[in-house]
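Input set for joint prediction.
Command: fold jointly, output tokens.
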Amino acid sequence: MSRRAPLHPPFEAEAPGMEHAVLLGQRAVGPDLAVAEIAAPRTASRAQPGQFVHLRIEELPLRRPFSVYHAAGERLEILYRVKGRGTTRMTRWVPGTDVDLVGPLGHGFAPPAPGERVVLVGGGIGVAPLAFYGARYPEHCAAIVGFGTAAEVGASDRLLQAGVATLVTTEDGSAGQAGLVTAPLAAQLAADPARIDRILACGPEPMLAAVARLAEQHGVACEVALEREMACGTGVCLGCVVPTTDPGQPYLRVCADGPVVPAGLVRW
Amino acid sequence: MTGVDLSVDVGGVRLKNPVLAASGTFGYGLELAPLVDPALLGGFVTKGLTLAARAGNAPRRIAEAPGGMINRIGLQNVGLEVFLQEKLPELARLDTAVIVNVSGDTAPDYAALAGRLDAVGAPIAGIELNVSCPNVARGGREFGTDPEVLFELVAAARSRTRLPLWVKLSPAVTDIVELAAAAESAGADAIVAVNTAPAAFVEPVWEGSRLSARILRGGLSGQGLKPIALRAVADLRRTVRLPIVGVGGIGSVSDVFEFLAIGASAVQIGTASFADPQLLGRLPGELAAALAERGCASLAEALGRDRVGGRER
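tokens >
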């Protein structure tokens, strides 16, 4: 709890704010996958890779958290999969729709140290915060991103545009290498773990657990971006916690202690 | 500003306006400061405090519900000592009334917490006894369902503090009026009505042709709770002399007026702040503007001096 050493180095991100943003447009990037393009100058100029925004969605009682996928100038993008009440409503938003947004929230990935070589490992829409990191620090990054099938690979468009060397996997083999992201990651680590200084991962929990295990086996630093249902998004309600490996802090709050945390701190 | 005097006295707690943040939705006062200036609030109630730190319940802890949410946080908190050493100095910086919400496993726990907080005094404006948490195995709601047990508990806390004592009741009781009467006779200074209502979120799970359920048992808050809370406040107002703090599903100034009209002296806002973090900061101004429009110089003028008996028409 509050006695332990801080999880993150002194955080220089600016305080979150509320922003009355406006939807610029949406683009489909795969089946049930979309990118919402939002004019949000305050948030776009402050967001760090790994941070999230909390969107109010019409009459729904709780906001929905989304990692920032892309931020440039006044423009902010979020990547989402259409799967529930909130995201279904979002698909009906047309350009000009008001977007009530709180952000940027949470702690992001640590920026790269000089010369640091970072591997981004993303699964599905988990690619979102990694694409933002890759676009900001392309010279430090290589990426491995996995999807179910070729039609979903468009969800990594911002990463590919950033010029980050990216290896794609699909579970059905319809694009890139067949299988899961963990296979090429394991191969790279086995070949020469010293070539990788840090792994950043975001995606389904079993993938994160597998990536965390590989990183630990090879002694490579690893940060993961977690996702949970949230109520407040600001650290007060304690609804989005995950169990930790630290007896002094049994749970961490994904919204305020994360969403990016050291992989070794999470009890998978 | 409109110049309307919104101040109100709730069982010895002087509030500059009747809008408070409910326990568990405003942390320890500073977390939300970038979004809402605590000085705008009449006050806030801190996250439920216990003698020893508590880890809280294993996740999953929340689910959305129609008009609100269901939570089973389980009183995760830093414990009394860390609260006093690390949180209290921050609270002292806030220009608003701070009510400390406390819970325990036994009546002596509540008494011990009341005694320690009494010794601290300022900046603590009052204590809210949580006798209605639906999410812990022991203590919590069981203390708030039996009038005799509740009397003993409130009396034990009362014997250890001169700070104003508010008692927060559950809506899931046989007779909330009887419980409030027990709290009143044991020396409580105000009744807070209501805590969350026991509820469940269910996801059907199919394994082939076999149906089972994934369930989250917790407390319902938000708009769905409002009619239940209004009924509790209305029933209490008929018979109980203590001031009443209304809480449950309030999300607008018109909701605030519903509770004030039926006899609440002040209100707490909880779940609505999650969707609209700036609501708390806006409500006092909206309240003042609405009163000014009616020609009221003060909130007291609208409420009348004696609230006992209510003003149902």
